[in-house]
Specification:
The strands form two sheets. A two-stranded antiparallel sheet has the order 1-2. Strands 3-4 form a two-stranded antiparallel sheet. It contains eleven helices and four strands, in the order ββαααββαααααααα. The two termini are 23 Å apart. It is mainly α and 244 residues long.
């Protein structure tokens, strides 16, 4: 069931807040309640229970999820850092729509940053290569989109973990969070999960050959490979929305 509440803003205009009262996704055990909330809210955004453009009523959402507003606000703040939400003073949070314009501005950045971080990290030790192989095997076995993306993020961060430039690592982390919601659209199709794992094997093969430049090139190719499928999906979605 979906309800809406109305109120007047400062200009006297009627403002409607939409929130979902459908069965909330059960919160599973995680390190913190905020972690569980971030995962649950992200899924609600992706499956449409929190619609693009909808304003979030903190009171009703906290009640629906069975949590207090303090961890909910922390989770909302983290999703805002990812770019999934926007916050307007005295109005509150709203779901930020996926747009081709934003995607084309943020997605090309990691293919520039990650290969440079790998170059600075140098050829990894055998233990690191084994760690990457193990994570990659887990990606192949993943059946849930969110789990596959979390593992893919972990794989890429492990690949560049020895980079001495920690500011560069922080930047990559920021853009990883910003692009995650777009990648969830891509990785929801099984063939794209398998494609990511295939690309990882090419990177590992180059590293085992002690070919750092080849590994950097393969990494750049891997990070660019998701661009067109996501862009095509966004273009089709925007065309459909214009028709409506």
């Amino acid at each position: 069931m979906r309800r809406s509440g109305g109120r007047l803003d400062a200009a006297g205009t009627s403002v409607h807040t939409v929130y979902s009262m459908q069965q909330a996704e059960p919160l599973i055990a995680r390190d913190t309640i905020a972690d569980a909330l971030v995962a649950s809210l992200r899924k609600m955004i992706m499956d449409g229970r929190l619609e693009a453009g909808a304003r979030i009523n903190e009171v009703h959402l906290a009640q629906a999820l069975g949590v207090s507003r303090t961890p909910l606000r922390e989770a909302l703040g983290r999703l805002a850092q990812e770019g999934a939400l926007t916050s307007v003073p005295r109005i509150g949070w709203s779901v930020r729509p996926l747009t081709l314009e934003e995607f084309e501005q943020i997605y090309p950045i990691r293919p520039l940053l990650d290969p440079e971080a790998l170059r600075l990290a140098g050829l990894p030790m055998p233990q690191r290569i084994e760690e990457l192989r193990v994570i990659d095997a887990r990606i192949e076995r993943a059946r849930q989109t969110e789990a596959a993306i979390a593992l893919d993020d972990a794989w890429h961060l492990a690949l560049i973990a020895d980079c001495p430039n920690k500011i560069l690592i922080e930047l990559i982390g920021q853009f990883t969070r910003r692009t995650r919601r777009y990648e969830m659209a891509l990785m929801s199709e099984r063939r794209n999960v398998l494609g990511a794992s295939f690309d990882h094997k090419a990177i590992l093969a180059a590293l085992k050959r002690r070919d750092l430049s080849g590994a950097c090139a393969a990494l750049k190719s891997n990070l660019e490979s998701g661009r067109e499928p996501i862009a095509a999906w966004l273009r089709e979605r925007e065309r459909t929305n214009r028709k409506d």
